[in-house]
Amino acid sequence: MSDGDKMKDFRERVKALEPDRDAVKAQHAKGKLTAEERLDLLLDKGSFTELDAFAELQSSNYDLAAKKRPRDGVITGYGTIGKRPAYVYAQDFTFMGGSMGEMHNRKIANVMELSLKAGCPCIGLFDSGGARIQEGVQALDGGGEIFRLNTMMSGVVPQISVILGPCAGIAVYSPALTDFIFMTKKDSYMFITGPEVIKAVTGEQIDFAGLGGAAAHSSKSGVAHFVAEDEKECLLMVKALLSYLPQNNLENPPLISTADSPVRANKDIAKIVPDDPKKSYDMRDVISEVVDKRTFFEVHAEYAQNAVVGFARLDSRVIGVVANQPSVLAGCLDIDSSNKIAHFVRLCDAFNIPLVNFVDVTGYLPGTEQEHNGIIRHGAKILYAFSEASVPKISLVLRKAYGGAYIALVSKGMGYDKVIAWPQAEIAVMGAEQAVNIIHRKEIAGKDGEKVRKQKVAEYAEKFLNPYVAASQGRVDMVIAPEGTRKSLIACLSMLSTKRDAIVDRQKKYRKHGIIPL
Length: 518
Hints:
The protein is about 40% helix and about 20% strand. The chain has helices spanning about 5-15, 20-30, 35-40, 60-65, 100-120, 135-155, 175, 195-200, 210, 215-220, 230-240, 270, 285-290, 335-350, 370, 375-390, 405-410, 430-440, 450-465, 465-470, 485-495, 500-510, and strands spanning about 50, 75-80, 85-90, 120-130, 160-170, 180-185, 190, 225-230, 295-300, 305-315, 315-325, 355-360, 395-400, 420, 425-430, 480.
């Protein structure tokens, strides 16, 4: 073949990469973008370099061979997002429903491995019906390679999964192994077995949205961390998330100036938090008032809403926020919130993001259902996550910190570097009324029981329900006025910016890994 023929052949092969117009129309008719359009929205303009473009199906199956096409249903490569490099792959539903065959999976695995070597984020755009049935075990084995790489990459480089269509069968397990999952309200679905299979096996009737739509996974299962109105908003949210994350576990998060004064007083906090400790409020208002303006980026917003977690900036530095939400279940910790917090804490620790707790909690949620479903085991995950975390850990007690929840979110014994309290903070084993009912149960059972109870409650509150008892024992480092919260947190964060944890370093040297209570 002459050089001229080779160039002609090359141009023909490149032309074959162009999307099929009818398939594109069909994708648009569903209200969905193509794989190419999604990558254009995600990556900086002109930055994408495609890899393995000419990879195609290798099966000897005659029917399959007739369908083969370059790319094999997935576009892989690298580019930049906010001028920072990232590896990406985007499944192409217009080719065999984005099904995952041998070469399809090998391409994804290749780009994941390159991401690990380069030390930069890996982002997958999912739109697939699952394993390519016609290829049999070859398709399944490739899935195993992807899952192994997901595991190897965990805690080393950020992994983000964006569900922009169906994600079914073996395809769901890769997103489940990544750090964050994004979905859109209308077109995203995740499930292991579809509605038809469920109906055949159990007789239960349910539609795609009810089974595995964004609402189900963001609020019930907790599988999805973020939900967007549409694909464009979803990809913008991915970009926003990346602005809070480092490229890998050896780097610090990006420092982006917010131009918010580090000495700004929090004058509006008194209006947000009621004087009556029994009245609720929205903790997100407190967080937004304290952190740099318009920087709070909530994670898992719809799931376990009695806890609030997310990223923010303090004096332009990235922090991970963990907070109780008094307006939901009085901010008590339960099974779901324990899982939510533990996952977020471990992620922040893996990527060198300091943790700041906003605490207003009466304890773990009581009840038979919680006990029988394993609150002991799940609640222990918070203890494990915070104990293991070696990043700077700062805890602020706003109103209440009782019992086991105090230990998990505040206790110096857990390794918190700085514990700060407001003057109205109540730090104790339990509230005054509950304590009196136990300690003085015989006295309040008598003739003047109610009078005695009120007297003992007042005595207990005065003696124990203030931050100064804990401060006198060195368990609270600082008692501050609420309006000075921002300034105090920034000062603590600055002093802890060079923190090194020798104990954790020794543990990592001599043990393989701990065994978290799963």
